[in-house]
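Posting this for the archive.
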Amino acid sequence: MLFCKDANLMSAPLILLINPWIYDFAAYDLWVKPLGLLYIASLLRKHGCGVHLIDCLDPYHPALKQEHRIKQFSRKETGQGHFFNEEIAKPDALKNIKKKYKRYGIAPSLFDRELSALPRPAAVLITSMMTYWYPGVFEAIRRVKSVYPDVPVILGGVYATICREHARKFSGADSIVSGPGESEVLKILQALTEEKLFPVPDKWDSDTRPFPAYDLITNKKALPILTSTGCPFRCTYCASAYLNPVFKQRDPHQVVDELEFWITHEGTTDFIFYDDALLFNTEQHAIPILKEVIKRKLAVRFHCPNGLHIRYITQPVADLMMESGFKTLRLGFEFADTHLQQKTGGKVSGEEFINAARILKQAGFSSQEAGVYILAGFPGQDSKEARNTIHLVKEHGLKPIMAEYSPIPGTALWEKAVASSPFPLADEPLFHNNTLLPCQSEKFTMEDLNMLKQEARKN
């Protein structure tokens, strides 16, 4: 308990942070990083705690190449790529699914060795992502408890927020933290360690927090940058507003200051925007950021794996995105059908998509750079609607990308998803998995989905 990774704080309590494995039929790394944990790590340091991160999803772990059982893949220069993985037994609930089930990330033996080499921590913080990835979370908790049975384990993140009761009953964690958890985590740790830890000044304002502790991760060539939290829209299928109820944008100059900090200190070349509403309030937010990047002559590449809001793509914005170094654009279109657009939140229309496609092509973006998410397997959706959307996207020179619908508890669409699904969604989060096409029906079958994916990939 009296160990700290920071040499000048050797008597401070050690807090162990864990980013667990992904257990799934498929997974691809779109620059994923445990950003919430890294923000908490920087806050803990500010309060005098020592921190150590075990990142089970680290594709650059130096010991991975020694693990011959794990299938290894090369990574793209820009930082995305496949995870190391190993086939494992399926959970009982998924026994009848005829797909290979895998653990994505480092070998468990590496996890155990790293865990055993650490001094005894005062507490363990574990994050979580998709609800149906909880088996990897449970495995991390089990392994921690086998070594340190009486060390408190605090679980937070997406699964812990959306499926709090499931996590409370089955995870084995001692505490469950929901939503943005910095203040709650600090309060719990203060009680455990008897250290005086002050709450975050404003848990909804990223500018009140220190930069994330990126020194804890192995490779810093590609890093996420958060310019806002939450989302002003309320799409019926999305949990963004549930996970972050308050929409808050950072000061544009502070965003660029952070970009420049990582470029200067870590040699970062690629930045990933995880914002749910990067282009909202464009004149006061995105445009000042992009102009400042250009003004400071920051030679970087930007990537947007989350869907950008189409209606805010104007010619000046697209031109600035091209000039400032955007290389990966993903647009949130979902449906070409006007009725479905309005029924699910009305964030975009077909006319707005056509206009945005024209603008992006005129700015110089290729179809490989500008992809469009199309939602597939939506409750009650006909596969013909998805096919029409694919054709519309291709007709206007952009790349269609099929995104299978995943039911999320707490969203406006949840009850309809439960009623229309052939799986017991309310009883078992494993069935939220989009690979299963959870709301498949006679109008939208797995065979339909496979044909649509092939059609989307055709030039």
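Residues 252-266 form the longest helix (15 residues). The chain has a mean pLDDT of 92.
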